[in-house]
Amino acid sequence: MLISMRFFCVAGCQALVYCCFLFGSVAFSQDALPEEEPFFTELYKEVNVLIERHIATLNASPTASDVVASPFQKGPTYTDSLEDASSAIALIERRRIAKDVGLNFNLGYIDNFTNGLQDQGFFYRRAFQTGLDWNILKDGWIDSKYRAREFLYQQQINTLLASTADQPNEYAFLNHQLSQWFEEAKHLELKNRQSFSADYLKISKKLYYKKLLLWDDILELLAEQAAIDNMISTDSLVFDPAVTGAIDRLPVFKIDEKELLLRFTERKKNTDSLTVMLQEEYLNARYKAVRDLSLKPYVRYNYYDYEGVSNLAVGNRDFVSVGIQFSVPLPLRVKENRSLRELKLKEVDFKNTASSTTGAIELKNILLSYEEAYGRYLESCYRKQVIKERIRREQVKLSVSDEDYSPVTILKELNEFYKVKYELITTKEELYLLMLRLRYLVPEAELSGFTQEVNFESGLDKNILYDKSMYVWSGTFGDLTNEEIVKAVKNAGCRRIILSIDQNNELKMKAYDLNTLLIKDNIELHMMIANNKFIYASEAGKLAEAVEYLMEIPGIKGIHLDIEPHVIPELKTDRNKYQDMYVAMLKVVRQKTKMKGLKLSVSIPVFYEKNKLVKIYSNTDKVYLMAYENPDLDFIKRKTEEELSIDRSKTIVALRTKDFASRKAMNQFVQQLSSILGTSEFAIHDLKTWNLLK
Questions:
Q1: What is the pLDDT of residues 327-339, one digit of tens each?
Q2: Which residues contact 570 (CB under 8 A, 6 or more apart)?
Q3: CA 652 to CA 626: how far, in whole Å?
């Protein structure tokens, strides 16, 4: 909204036009309503102070590499201690059962009143009995072995189910912890917005009093402020700066739904088959027929005291007795045990099927919710970029003293910016809580296996308009994983990789796997040959072998020659000779790549003769110009004019990361160079130094 005020004063035949935009760069006229000037001057200062204080928030570009805490890197919690305690209890319980050999020590004493009791045809006053009972089968030695085995299998089943089940205690704990982190971040963001809103309302009221704003505008701001006050938590939150500051920097992931569903299905299949196997072993031990039989031998020492019994003239008596007891349930129930075992196995199958169906439904519902939240997050990212672009345009107007400049527009956009920032945090919280749920549905799957980290900031940058390549040398290729390479190349916005493997069989196999990942993201793989000796005609055979060796990698898009004869001492002084040799070499390789339907590209310096350049361009699909060491726009423009005039569509300007202080500086240089040269194709030399560039 541009708020402007024009004052017209007419004196005699001469019209004096006093025009003063509210916050424009045009100075206030000394003749135009001098009583108003102090008000606008103070307001102008007040607005600019407010803008300077809040404009820095626009330049925050969080990246995943800045993350200092992640909800998925779980530290020790009470759930870990609970799991340890449960394991320890189970171990002791199993040992306790295994130590039960069915042997029992018995001790008994009886003291009768008056006449005593008759036992086996005689009377006694008191009796003492002790001995050993040994239960061999039921509830005894053999039975305890089966109970220990039964307990072991049940424990394994419980552990297996716990690893794939909801684990409500742990899930609830982490869910609460994650929500708490985001609550802290939202609270701080609302406090920032509340502070800005208060200043914005204060300025807007002053404008209303001068009849430069409508009451509707003030009401809208009052409603916003009331909503902010209502959203700010009154609870006493304990803030962890490391965690709260990391929320903005947490990455957002795009989920490969097909891969996740495949992993879920495979996990359920493997888990179910293992569960059935363990359950079968458990039931075998549980319903063993021998456990229904009872066999109990015993030995006892008996002592009877007849003293005090009037009708008996005998004294005390003691003796040892030995015996055995054996019992068999009738009927034996063998058939019932077998039927029960089979039915329980079927029950397990039914439960597994029901669990798979329920889990699959929940998984699909979560994926639908995630996709919807992901779309809202992406939309908010675009809105944030639009706001930043509008503010940038206003700042440009100020720098060129444009009369259309209005800080009020910046204030309105800043107000929208704070709204979007809060929306981003809220939506990210939703995404992470859904991701946490996925963690328990497919607990053993690594996030990297079914997710792709998305850098929204770089994806929405103008840098996305450029077609870029990335050089990857063999040393770097060997040091990094394929996933790390793909991630870095994608974050750099590159559409092809120029890869060197030095005819190394191990790296060749790794290149197979790399290309599988690249194809999924529509990134081309071109294999590099970088042996300068191949310029000699005598090395033509070895050159052909090197080309054929690389062409064995399925799915590659081309061969790239990074051969620099100008660095060979014996050829340095004869430019015409080595350039002719270079063209002859290209013709040999060109024949082979054409036969395989592959592209041929080359890297050359910016000083080849024009007549030789024409031949180089006619024998290649792309020419990479090594514009290194001098990152000067005019210099590169002058050095690449001949090549661009031959075929602009085939020309790619290669820049070296070592020539720039930061990635941002390099990207800005690419934008400027693109405007000057009229090309959008560039190459980055190389991945290792790009990763070091901040």
A1: 887 777 777 777 7
A2: none
A3: 9
Spatial separation of the C-alpha atoms in residues 654 and 188, rounded to whole Å: 44
Q: Is the pLDDT of residue 539 over 50?
A: yes
Q: Are 626 and 604 in contact (CB under 8 A)?
A: yes
- Residue 284 corresponds to which tokens in the numbers above? 């075998």
Phi-psi region of 503 (alpha: psi -120 to 50; beta: other; left: phi over 0): left
Q: Is 485 exposed, middle or buried (0-12, 13-18, 19+ CB in 10 A)?
A: buried
Q: What is the pLDDT of residues 230-257, one digit of tens each?
A: 877 655 555 555 555 567 677 788 887 7
Q: 3: Cβ–Cβ under 8 A, 6 or more apart, which residues?
A: 21, 22, 23, 207, 212, 213, 406, 408
Report whether 510 contacts 482 (CB < 8 A).
yes
Token representation of residue 323? 């015996």
State phi, psi for 211 to the nearest 5 degrees.
60, 35
DSSP label of 101: -
d(CA 51, CA 642): 48
Contacts 24+ apart (CB under 8 A), 537-542: 537/581, 537/584, 540/585, 540/588
The upper half-sphere exposure of residue 666, i.e. CA atoms within 13 Å in the direction of its Cβ, equals: 25
Enumerate residues 6+ apart whose C-beta is below 8 A from 604. 616, 623, 624, 625, 626
Nearest-angstrom CA–CA distance, 686 and 241: 36
> Which residues 6+ apart lie within 8 Å of 221 measured at CB?
197, 200, 201, 204
Cα angle 61-677-402, degrees, rounded to a multiple of 5: 60
Handedness of CA 621, 626, 631, 635 (dihedral sign): negative
User: Residue-wise over 111-124: b if at least 16 C-beta within 10 A, else e?
Assistant: ebeeebeeeeeebb
Neighbouring CB atoms inside 10 A of 367's CB total: 16
Q: Is the dihedral of CA 571, 577, 583, 589 positive or negative?
A: negative
pLDDT of the residue at 123:
63
The sign one gets for the Cα dihedral 119, 121, 126, 128 is: negative
